[in-house]
Specification:
about 170 residues, mainly alpha
Length: about 170
């Protein structure tokens, strides 16, 4: 977990993800909620879900495929860690990277509440944020699995995008 978190924040990948995600969420929040005086963030989450489908496979493409390509998976598999702890460590690191922009989205929800929203709308928006976070964790798990099937990062990203797009387009 610590190794993966360090790899996201020692390089620019984690910061670029958070910057792009928060920029797009801020634009949709400003125009969808502040300008139109709407207290529901359902449209915000539905709008940034498609952007999320584009960004998550790019982030997760290196989780397992990079280990296989650089042959460091053999080092990991012979370490005293179990296979479950390796996979879950990578998953929880990526989930923590995704949790930070979701925490900023929670600030947006509390801004709407401070501007005159009711408690029931606040709770509904926080429940929507929780559902969005869980959707993100499911997408991260799927993309991590697909990344483990290949050692080519581009194939992992395209497979992850295709699977998430297929799931998004299902009725």
């Amino acid at each position: 977990l610590k190794r993966e978190l360090d790899s996201y924040y020692y390089s620019a990948i984690g910061y670029v993800f958070m910057g792009c995600f928060l920029l797009i969420a801020g634009i949709f929040f400003t125009f969808g909620n502040i300008m139109s005086a709407s207290s529901s963030v359902g449209t915000l989450f539905s709008n940034i879900t498609f952007i999320f489908i584009l960004i998550v496979p790019i982030l997760t493409m290196k989780l397992m495929s990079d280990e296989r390509k650089s042959k460091t998976d053999q080092l990991l598999l012979t370490s005293p860690l179990s296979l479950w702890s390796i996979v879950l460590g990578k998953f929880f690191a990526m989930a923590a990277v995704f949790a930070l922009p979701c925490a900023v989205d929670a600030v947006m929800i509390f801004i709407l509440w401070a501007l005159g929203g009711t408690v029931s709308v606040l709770l509904a928006n926080l429940a929507g944020l929780l559902c969005y976070f869980l959707l993100g964790c499911a997408a991260i798990a799927l993309c991590e699995f697909l990344s483990g099937l290949t050692e080519n990062q581009i194939i992992a990203a395209v497979a992850g995008f295709s699977a998430l797009l297929l799931a998004y387009l299902m009725p």
